[in-house]
UniProtKB/TrEMBL annotation:
This is Uncharacterized protein. Residues 11-27 have a biased composition (Low complexity). It comes from Nostoc cf. edaphicum LEGE 07299. Residues 28-38 have a biased composition (Polar residues). The lineage of its organism: Bacteria, Bacillati, Cyanobacteriota, Cyanophyceae, Nostocales. Residues 1-38 are annotated as: Disordered. Residues 1-10 have a biased composition (Basic residues).
Length: 302
């Protein structure tokens, strides 16, 4: 008796036929596709609506508010300080700024210094139709310059930035070139003993009054070895002790001894002692200082 045909087989056969048709259709489509390099892309034009005169005025007004934000902050802080309007709640201006605004002493004074610079730049920028600073960090390097140099530095930085508001890095580079242009030649000598003078340079924070040995003489700076390492210091932040050659040699020996003990990794209290030696304003150790340093050397150096 003949076997009835299988429904499953028919279904499979139908599916195979459909798959083949689909594949053939796809191949046809691929073969008929246009070369991408010759395809035309249609882009819809977007109409840009011009600002009305009132909108242009509003935009300029708001841009000026953004530009002057840090200036207004610095100006207000200066008035709060000068009139002592903090005195009813705080003993010092620094305490008031920390509690009221979350500012460190440095932050507050940076804003006040920046406000003074901004005020100096307003006239020159309006005169030459230049962009004004929009952040404190953009004018921070300029605070080191004289008022006429501040204007020169900002105009030059805007030019370098292609007419846009320059970054703090661009301003710093321009200021550095101006300072190098006005600096006297480097007259320091190797192994000369110098004192570090901070002069509001945050990079030298904590190093004020430290003495050091000149280990490298550069064009506008010196590499100075002090009690906890070596630092590149600009000439404006150095002051010679004018020690005799024999005194310089003696201080070189003391500096090397302090460095060896410091890098031995002793506890903080000992480091404080070494720091005190690193701020001596004399070319010798007292008997007690010599005994303590010698004891530390025995403890640290094998």
């Amino acid at each position: 008796m003949p076997k009835p045909p299988s429904r499953r087989s028919k279904a499979t056969s139908g599916a195979s036929t459909d798959s083949a048709s689909a594949a053939n259709s796809a191949n046809e489509d691929i073969s008929q596709q246009v070369d991408p390099s010759s395809a035309t892309i249609t882009v819809s034009a977007v109409e840009v609506t011009e600002l009305t005169q009132e909108e242009q005025s509003d935009r300029l007004h708001l841009e000026r508010k953004v530009e002057r934000a840090f200036f207004e902050a610095g100006k207000a802080l200066a008035e709060l300080r000068d009139r002592r309007l903090y005195r009813s709640s705080h003993r010092t201006f620094e305490d008031y700024c920390r509690d009221r605004f979350g500012h460190s002493r440095r932050q507050s004074y940076l804003l006040m210094d920046a406000a003074v610079v901004f005020d100096n730049l307003v006239e020159i920028c309006d005169q030459f139709d230049h962009k004004l600073p929009t952040a404190e960090g953009q004018v921070r390097p300029i605070t080191k310059l004289e008022p006429h140099e501040q204007q020169e530095a900002w105009l030059r930085a805007v030019e370098v930035a292609g007419g846009k508001v320059p970054t703090g890095r661009i301003v710093k580079d321009v200021v550095q070139r101006i300072m190098e242009r006005t600096q006297v030649p480097n007259t320091y000598q190797l192994e000369e003993v110098c004192q570090i003078v901070v002069k509001d340079n945050p990079e030298l924070r904590g190093k004020g009054s430290c003495w050091g040995i000149v280990s490298q003489v550069n064009e506008f700076s010196c590499t100075v070895k002090i009690w906890d390492g070596e630092y590149a210091v600009g000439l404006q932040h150095l002051k010679s002790y004018n020690y005799l050659p024999a005194e310089c040699q003696q201080m070189q020996v003391i500096c090397d001894r302090i460095n060896r003990v410091y890098w031995g990794g002793l506890e903080e209290s000992v480091q404080r002692f070494l720091e005190s030696l690193g701020k001596l304003n004399r070319a010798y150790l007292t008997d007690l200082e010599e005994k303590v340093l010698s004891l530390l050397e025995l403890e640290i150096i094998p």
